[in-house]
Input
Amino acid sequence: MMNSQLKNFTKGLLLENPVFVLLLGLCPTLGVTTSALNGLGMGLATTFVLVMSNLSVSLIKNFIPDKVRIPAFIVIIASFVTIVDLLMQGYMQALHGQLGLFIPLIVVNCLVLGRAEAYASKNNVLSSVIDGLGMGLGFSLALTVLGGVREILGSGALFGIPLHIFPVDDKGNSITMIVFVLAPGAFIVLGYLIAISKKINKQ
Amino acid sequence: MGKKPESTFVNMVLRLLVIVSVAGLALGLVYTQTYDVIQAAKKAKLEAAIGEVVPAFDTLMTYSLPPVGKDSITFYKAYKNDVLVGTAIDTYTAKGYSGRIKIMIGFDPQGVIINTAVIEHKETPGLGDKMDKSKGRWPEQFKGKDPKTFVLKVTKDKGDVDAITAATISSRAFCDAAQRAYDALIEEGGNDE
Output
């Protein structure tokens, strides 16, 4: 029992990592990961929504008639996303300024609806919460790594701390590989990270 | 697994209604609980921006021109011992590379720029976002410049502003917002006191 729950938790981190293996929720993945902090913030916000929606869906799974389950799930997910949005506005202004546009989009992140439909609506509360936590942390890990790599290469910093690894021009600005903080850089880095995770998972 | 309720019309409508009501109630609760905190956080952010662009003050006079509407520009006149020490102007531009940019610009009583602070922008990280003080030293060139003699346009447009490398559109937008603030300041200048 204990062992299977542990497996249930760790599958989200590597074997079934939502970004690197399931390729779910790529819109926020590519959009917000211009820095490690943005990735981590988005990941944790999504984790909260995932855990809470998995919990609620699995609690009321026997209350919802089959034909209206998707609208019911969406209402639940949208409510938790709005709660996260309000809390971030109040307590994390700076981060909300950076991620503001993407927070409401968690509603349509197919990862959240996907776990509600594929897992939480068929399993008990404890397993569903652990599944949400594992998937959420796997998502956060992927976004943080992706954001970290892009930030190092594109801005020459990590978590906002300058690393001084790039040459400096005559105005004192460091010359970085700007393409990595733009959209194409997201695809390039994601491609390499998927390849690396495939290699790790094979062993 | 327990038995699922059948998908009859009554079942579907009633059960969805229950779910939506609970969700609505929960949202209402969170909204009222966080309302004050959110307003306080927004106010703190605005006040921090004002504090950055004008010298220390004890009273602040606020008004907007035109008084309402999303195109209005807000003036924050800062007084110390009843003497005007600076005017912070909350200005905007719609010419940003990815949408609206909001900037706070402080002018001293002679109309010279004291400092600038970006309140809100969605410019490209690593390029246009260098207009934000925390990301680069680009905005420092505006300090102590009088827009009467310092043309608020990028050098490509025959102005005096060095554009951000590879982000001319963002730089132009910043200048547009600054010019709007200066125009508003001049226009408003007559009816001071």
